[in-house]
Amino acid sequence: MSQAAETNPADMIRSPKAPQFPALPDRDLVFEVEQFLYREARLLDEERYEEWLGLMTEDIHYWMPGMQARYRDDASAGPLIERMAFYDDDLLNLRRRVTRFMHATAWAEDPPTRAVHIINNIEVELTEAEGEYRVYSTFVNCRGRNESEESWLAGRRTDLLRRDAGGALRLARRMICITQTVLLAKNLNVFL
Fold it and tell me: Reduced to 3 states, what is the DSSP secondary structure of residue 34?
């Protein structure tokens, strides 16, 4: 009899483990962060890119790694900074992208893309640094072009929000993990 046949499936079931979540932040902070993310989405939907850039810190890192399908027993870590990324941008590179999107010769944006960002599942965690918050959220982005082109992206985001000198929230870090391993859209002329 093989070893696999001798293993009782009931022996493989582990006892449930209680999740370890940090203490909940103040409701006012959660509301402020939610409104920040919803307003950011509206700025993007309305192509108010210069105002969107105004939400960033000077040291922003906007990162969307390429996703890989891995087997569960693959010991490789999750997304790695050294691997391919759709976005791996600082503020200068984000400005360049915005300039390109808005330029008259940006044929991929004429006629303009109609975009909708849906932001949900927002969680806020305090960090050890005063005035910095780790924020988790999910998103769905639907884009329509011309008469019948439509593409969808869905995924998770992990953000680091930081208060500026005036107390306003600013986006300092964003990691975007989409569900697609192969980008199915014709282009990626969208911020998430």
Answer: helix
Half-sphere CA count of 65, side-chain side, radius 13 A: 15
pTM score, whole prediction = 0.84
Q: Report the relative pairing of strands 169-178 and 149-163 from DSSP bridges.
A: antiparallel
User: How many whole angstroms separate alpha carbon 101 and alpha carbon 95?
Assistant: 10
pLDDT digits (tens, 9 = 90+) for 16-30: 888 888 888 999 999
Distance separating alpha carbons of residues 135 and 170, to the nearest angstrom: 12
- In whole angstroms, what is the distance from residue 119 CA to residue 139 CA? 5
Identify the structural domains of the chain with CATH numbers, from first to last.
24-68+83-178 (3.10.450.50)
Backbone torsions φ then ψ of 97, nearest 5 degrees = -60, -45
Q: Are 137 and 121 in contact (CB under 8 A)?
A: yes
36-77 per-position pLDDT tens digit: 999 999 999 999 999 999 999 999 999 999 876 666 676 665
Strands (E), 66-113: 85-89
Residue 133 CA to residue 151 CA, distance in Å, equals: 31
Structure token digits, residue 134: 């780790």
Count of residues in the chain: 192
